[in-house]
Design brief:
This protein is mostly helical. The chain is elongated, with a radius of gyration of 14 Å. Helix 1 runs antiparallel to helix 2. The chain has two helices and no strands. The protein has one domain.
Length: about 60
């Protein structure tokens, strides 16, 4: 994919969200309660969905 400012910003966001998703997933296993575990997995799902959205935007930019 050719370089562009739009894509560069989205790539950085994808990196940030995907690393945060992984960190929260890992933290979920260290949760002290079921409520904390549930809260962490909700964050993981939200960040994974945001990453998917950005990947879809990139796909649309390629068209």
């Amino acid at each position: 994919m050719p370089y562009s400012d739009k894509v560069s910003v989205i790539r950085k966001q994808i990196f940030r969200f995907s690393s945060s998703t992984a960190a929260n997933y890992r933290a979920m296993f260290r949760a002290r309660s079921n409520n904390e575990k549930f809260a962490k997995i909700c964050i993981v799902l939200e960040e994974a969905d945001e990453t998917l959205f950005r990947l879809e935007v990139i796909r649309e930019l390629k068209k």
